[in-house]
Write a structure and sequence with these properties.
This protein is mainly beta and about 290 residues long. It contains 2 helices and 21 strands. It is elongated.
């Protein structure tokens, strides 16, 4: 007797049902291809450094007295790296404290370009000029002052410039008779126009000309060695100080403080003036 096995026939081909396809698709994670942009410098060993550069500001060429701004000129590279060309600008601002106000005379005006060269440099400079609004300053006299701030749009270092025409104008005292009890006495009333006093923030070094004393701080300001000496604002260099911030931290702001230390009665409204010469400094050439 022959036995024949009974079972399902084997199909020659297999077509999955729609339900099977959908079930498989629901449990299969899709493969996604993502394109990522890679910076050009990533292929190099590291980011490209921006080079430092030497800059200058010449008041006669680069300063706009109306807006009180200046755009520095890039002089040369001052370090390794790629040179940038981001503009470097400076803004000059002023604040008066106490009984002090902006001054002007004979073509000179506060925060304006000098009409002629200054301090024997052969170049024009920024005029810093002020006057008293009272007949006599109360003490301390440095409570009546002007604060001038040079603000850059990025940090600068090794800032260098000159201050010129630091001098003084004291006049002959007058004598006043007064009564003390039953006795009449005389007292001396000091008189004068100005005694320049100048200090700078940040503790820079200062190379002084022969008729300048002090260290440029608020307690030991730059001043004339005489109480009555006037320098020619154009050609005189005996009242100059060469200022250098070499080795000091970079900064975006530098403050100059200017006051009149003349005691007693003020003549000619206490009008006084000094000058700031061209600036040189180092900064990044990129913004």
């Amino acid at each position: 007797m022959t036995t024949t096995p009974v079972g399902p026939a084997t199909p020659t081909s297999y077509v999955p049902s729609r339900r099977t396809v959908l079930r498989a698709a629901a449990w299969t994670a899709p493969a996604v291809s993502v394109a990522v942009a890679v910076p050009a410098y990533a292929a190099a060993s590291g980011p490209v450094a921006c080079a430092d550069a030497s800059y200058e500001i010449r008041w006669a060429s680069h300063y706009n007295a109306q807006t009180r701004t200046a755009t520095a000129r890039l002089v040369s590279a001052a370090g390794q790296g790629t040179m940038g060309n981001a503009p470097l600008t400076m803004f000059v601002s002023s604040r008066f404290v106490g009984d002090m106000a902006a001054g002007s005379t004979g073509g000179y005006a506060n925060l304006a370009l000098s009409p002629g060269n200054v301090g024997g440099t052969g170049r024009r400079g920024l005029t810093i000029m002020q006057r008293a609004t009272v007949e006599e300053f109360s003490t301390p006299r440095n409570a009546h002052r002007q604060e001038i701030t040079l603000t850059f749009n990025r940090p600068v270092r090794d800032l260098r410039f000159q201050l010129s025409d630091i001098d003084a104008n004291e006049e002959e005292s007058r004598w006043e008779r007064y009564r003390e009890g039953r006795e009449w006495k005389w007292r001396e009333i000091k008189r004068g126009q100005y005694q320049d006093r100048v200090s700078l923030s940040g503790g820079p070094a200062g190379t002084k000309a022969g008729m300048v004393a002090g260290s440029g701080t608020s307690v030991d300001p730059w001043r004339s060695t005489s109480t009555d000496v006037e320098h020619d604002p154009v050609s005189g260099s005996s009242g100059n100080v060469t200022v250098s911030y070499a080795g000091k931290p970079a900064s975006m702001a530098y403050v100059l403080t200017y006051w009149n230390d003349q005691p007693g009665e003020l003549t000619a409204n206490g009008l006084q003036g000094i000058f700031l010469t061209d600036l040189t400094f180092t900064a990044s050439s990129c913004a």
